[in-house]
Amino acid sequence: MALTDVRVAHKEEPKHAPPKRPKFWLHRFDTKTFPYLMIAPFFVLFAIFGLFPLIFNAVVSLRHWHLIDKEKNGWVGLDNFTKLAGDTDFWDALVNTFGIFILSTVPQLLLALMIANLLNRKLRGATFWRIGILLPYVTPVAASSLVFAVFFSRDNGLANWFLSLVGFGQEQPLDWRAGTWSSWIAIAVMVNWKWIGYNALLYLSAMQAIPKDVYEAAAVDGAGPWRQLWQITVPMIQPVVLFTVVLSTIGGLQLFTEPMLFDENPAQANGGYDHQWRTISQLIYRVGWSDLNLGYAAAMSWALFLIILIVAGINALVTRRLGGGK
Amino acid sequence: MSRAPQDTPGTWKSYFGLAAILLVSAFPVYWMFVIATSSDEAVMSSPPALIPGDQLMVNLREVFTMQDVFFTASLINSLIVAVAVTASTLFFCSLAGFAFAKLRFRGNNVLMFIVILTLTVPNQLGVVALFIVMNELGWNGTLLAVIAPGLVTAFGVFYMRQFIGHAIPDELVEAARIDGALTLRIYWTVVVPAIRPALAVLGLLTFVATWNDFQWPLITLNGTDFPTSMVALSDLASGNYVVYRRVLAGAFVATVPLVILLLVGGRQLVRGIMEGALK
């Protein structure tokens, strides 16, 4: 109703004030062209700083692209990739990346589920608890990694002191950085600490969207809280579980800051004296910006990209099977 | 009486569990503060210090007066980068979100689909080529190289489009049009006042992510006199003889702004993360 009234008024408007031509052009520009100007910044910037680098990376990976030693620069075809296939540094880093990834993702998502389940109750101070578990999320990774680097030091480290309280390592303190497994665990602890609360909130938001009558029916069947969680809640929030699995895969396989700053001398980007915890991202950094061999670093980036695609795909399938199979 | 978990009151066990989780969440930040306030002896003692000392000012003075790490400048740089990226993200994302949600133009849906597709692109993997692009532009080693890639994000455009779609009735936009207002004016007088909550959420998420970013700033600013505070921290921790009370005093200073943000805007952050999940 109101609209038609207004439209009539709109038609009569010329009687009072004939529109000036520039106004008409302005109106045309404003409705036809201006919307494109509003969305243009995103597309232009993404093209320059997002899409182009990703494609150009492929070009760089087919060249010798050295920042200092420039006389060899030029097309090398697939040389970088054949070199990669036989590069033990790369495969070792891949093993480390996967080891740390599994140690940091599986507990992370399981604990996030448990915590979300705890938060999914009628609680006093619900907002307070939710804000509290976000503290690790807002803490800079660089800062928290440095705290953990001290926490896991061999002599006078708090981690070893806690272990000694339960009677472990009194003779010989555990050298966290020396061993493969211990260094992986230390780094995984950092990743877990940072992301559990964040993922718990993602799960919680999905849990609260589950219709209540689903639980009514289960209660009649006599399902206890534990069975309720595994047989109703988890299958119902499966899309979000899938989302977090994929997100953690993409993030976890690119792990960089934690292993970098766990080193006693981060500038070296060693990932341990025997590279026992060096991740692929760290290796890319080392090859690209210490050895200045950008062509080879770009090839490694591509390899990592493919690996992430494959693993994220597999993980997504596995998650769907596990969730839908019951 | 509903049997749904969210209607079941928490038992003392749930509160006990939550308190334990909160302790674990807060402990590293607390311990950062402990070491930042301790002397070398306290850091090296066994058991390690668990209670703050009185050396905070001494340690801070050392951090801020170091000859080879420009910590004060790096904090200012972090602030410049985070504020510039946040302001620009809010402006461009809300503008684009408004266009996608409320304006009719050819290709609207297809272009929005492309925006959503770009959400899945792992940007970090283009880092080598991005470095070469910045070299061509002559921006490596300057703050421009850190700011430019973050000026507008796919997530921000998507988030704003969803919010504006729900929050602003079409009639409101139409009415303003009939009054003869141009699009930009409608954006400023109708859209912006109505989306303040979403601006707060996106602003917080963007500021936190930008302030905390490490890998790309490290690559482009390495070895310059203009690092961000995260790169400066890595410089503090590098070298043959590292003084941890100094490193963690710096880390603590770089963490404080974010703890304050969490205290002030925690509610919005929680909402943002929980809303972002319901895609």
Describe it for me?
The complex is a heterodimer of chains A (326) and B (279). Chain A starts with a helix and ends with a helix. The model of chain A has no long low-confidence stretch (mean pLDDT 88). Chain A has 326 residues and is mostly helical. In chain A, helix 4 (88-119) runs parallel beside helix 9 (180-207). Helices cover 72% and strands 1% of the residues of chain A. Chain A is globular, with a radius of gyration of 28 Å. The longest helix of chain B has 34 residues, at 244-277. Helix content of chain B is 72%, strand content 0%. The model of chain B has no long low-confidence stretch (mean pLDDT 92). Chain B has helices at 12-36, 40-44, 56-64, 71-102, 108-118, 127-137, 143-147, 154-167, 170-178, 183-194, 196-212, 215-221, 229-237, 244-277. At the A-B interface, helix 1, helix 2, helix 4, helix 5 and helix 6 of A face helix 1, helix 4, helix 5, helix 6 and helix 9 of B.
> What is the overall silhouette of chain B?
globular
User: Helical region count of chain A?
Assistant: 15
- Structural Rg of chain B: 23 Å
Major beta sheet summary of chain B? none
Number of helices of chain B: 14
In round numbers, the mean pLDDT of chain A is 88
Percent helix of chain A, as a range, is over 70%
Helices and strands in order:
The complex is a heterodimer of chains A (326) and B (279).
Chain A: H1 2-16, H2 21-61, E1 63-64, E2 74-75, H3 79-85, H4 88-119, H5 126-132, H6 135-138, H7 141-151, H8 158-165, H9 180-207, H10 213-220, H11 225-236, H12 238-252, H13 257-262, H14 280-289, H15 294-324
Antiparallel strand pairs in A: 1-2
Helix pairs in contact in A: 2-15, 4-9, 4-12, 7-9, 12-15, 14-15
Chain B: H1 12-36, H2 40-44, H3 56-64, H4 71-102, H5 108-118, H6 127-137, H7 143-147, H8 154-167, H9 170-178, H10 183-194, H11 196-212, H12 215-221, H13 229-237, H14 244-277
Please give a quick description of this structure.
The complex is a heterodimer of chains A (326) and B (279). Helix content of chain A is 72%, strand content 1%. With 326 residues, chain A is mostly helical.
